[in-house]
Every structure is written in structure tokens, then in C-alpha cells.
Model the fold of this input.
Amino acid sequence: MSLEQKELTLNMGPQHPSTHGVLRVIVTLDGERVVKAVPVIGYLHTGIEKTMESKLYYKALPCTDRMDYLAPMSNNLGYCLAVEKLMEIEVPEKVKWARVCLAELTRIKSHLVWLGTHALDLGAMSMLLFTFRDREMIVDVYEACGGQRMMTSYIRIGGLSHELPPDFEKKVRRVIKEIPAKLNDYEDLLTKNEIFINRTRNVAVISAEDAINYGLSGPMLRGSGVKHDLRKANPYSGYENFDFEVPVGKKGDAYDRYLLRLEEIRQSLRIIEQALDGMPEGPYRAHVPGVVLPPKEDVLYKMESLIFHFKIITEGFKSPKGAVYQGIESPKGELGFYISSDGSNKPNRIRVRPPSFVNLASLPKLTEGGLFSDVVCAIGSIDIVLGEVDR
Done:
């Protein structure tokens, strides 16, 4: 760099821990000010959508867990709802309520990981330990339901993989009981902490108009004051039966998004309690022979169920020609699945609308003109998972 040159270009990442994955940002600086910030993606590219197109509808499901691996149940739900819309399958009421309960547990789990890692990025090391400690309660529910602590594939086409475990309500009631006090502890540590406020207030600001123009969704959109939530705007899986509020921010800065996510956890707890209290009785999957897998206990003792199970697993089922789109409100925003069918037993085309990918496009707007030290805060406040960006 010559003495006359004022601007300096730096590579931030892709190995940098605060980029929340293998994200590279090319940052051009004038002193400590960010002149330009260009996110560079593709280091984790897995080709998940193309992989799903090569598989039977059932066998494509586990691919969804591995996009946003902090919210696997939400990914399962979005994909299954899209296939069910394509196949015109109506699931039992119990399945709808159970899915809502699991999706909201997933929202809490995802927000806890976000809070711990974001606070760690800004120097609050204890928060990571606290949030991961409390996340274990929800991961225990995952393990009880699907036998796995992350990649559960528990929500299936037409229902659930098997009946809710006997101790499901007990484990979930524990979450409802203990998390509110934990949230108060988090707020005691951060909400009025001068260092945290200085690092987040009026940092990474985006207006409501810009948020809409960038196509942002989830906390990124609502943090700018736009009250849009697919659970209210276009209810799915029975969300119209639940009473909850959609929190919004005022300034659209990192501090607003922090407060908003905490309030979203409280609202999720409210929804979960309603789901447990009103959980209807009934089967845990729809009865659609040849399309929905029969219950495992029937497969063991009934020849007809064994035949259907074998044919679905080996040959799949043929879907009607057409295309569907199904969006859900994942913890990070609108997660949408577009499925195009040519009438065969495999999807002709699958395209995912991932919130992390779309929201990441706002990074230049959040950082340019600000301090270089605030780039870390901006990335963290978006809440991205690179498995979803590079899917």
C-alpha cells in the first residue's frame, strides 16, 4: 500500500469464527470506517436441492435437517407441508398440534444458540455456557421423539415418524416452567449492560423500507417495525387456533433484534403451553395407503401394511403433475419449499427459499459507513447458518 492510498481491502473469513460458518467478507476500509463489504459464499456448497431431486419423496426428507441444522424440525415441517399440499393429504388434528409444539421448541432452541454465540462475538463469554445449558432441555425432547439430538427427521409426510413418547408432556412442561426464569437471567446480564448496549444500539441499522426491498423476513424484518409473520399472515398447521403476539422493533438495529428474539421465545412458550393443554386425541399420521407409511406395529403383524411399507420405501409413490410452494415462519424467517412434479415418484425440481441466504444480502447495507468493529455484530444480528446459505 502506498502512502497516498487511503483505502485498505481485507479478507474477513472464511475461517473467522465470528462469521458463523465458512463465510468470507471482503471489507474495504477507510481508516476504521467500512467503505464496502461484499459477502462471498459457496465454501460449504452441498447441492442439497439437486440431491433431493434424485431421491424418492420420503428419502429426500433427511436432506432438509442438514440445511439449517439448528432448526431441523422446522425444515422437516416446511418440506412435509409442501409434499402434503402436492398430494392433497390432510393430516389429523393431533399431528397439527404436535407439529406446532415441536416447531416452537425449535424456535426457542435456535434463538438460544443465536443469543449465546452473538453475545460471545461481542465479548460476553458466559452467555454461551448458559444458553447451551438451557438448550439441553429441548434437545432432550428431540432425543425422546426421534432418537437423535439434532438430525431427527421426526416430522414425516402425512404425520410423525411414530407416536409422541410417554414422557413428552413432562419434558416439555419442564421447558415451559424453567425457561422464563432463564430469560430473566439473560436480561439481567445483557439488556442494561452498558458494554452490550454500546456494541448493539444504533449498530447495523436497516429501515423498514430497505428491509422490505431486500426481501428480508423473520426477526430481520420485524426488527425494523414491519409486523409480518407467516403464522399470522398465512397460517399453516393449525396456527390460526393459537393466541400469541408478533413482537416488532422500532429502530431496526442490532439491539432491537436482540430484544425481539427474547420476546419471540416468550411467545413460543405461550404457544407451546396452549398446544399441550389442547392436544387432541387421535392417530399420529394420516391413513393414506400407498402414500403414507403405515404404523410400525402394523407392519410387524399385518401383511397388507408390510406390503405398503415395502413398496413405499423401495418404489415411493407417484405424485400428480403440478407445482406447489409452501412457506413457513422458521426461526430465521420465511423458509419456503417449491416442488415441481412431472408425475413420477421423484420431485422433478426442488427449490428452497432459505431465510439465511436472503437475509445475508443485507450485510453491505448494515455495515457500510459503520465501524469495522461493528461488522461482527452485524453478521451475528442477522443470525445465519451457512448450511442454509450454501445448501
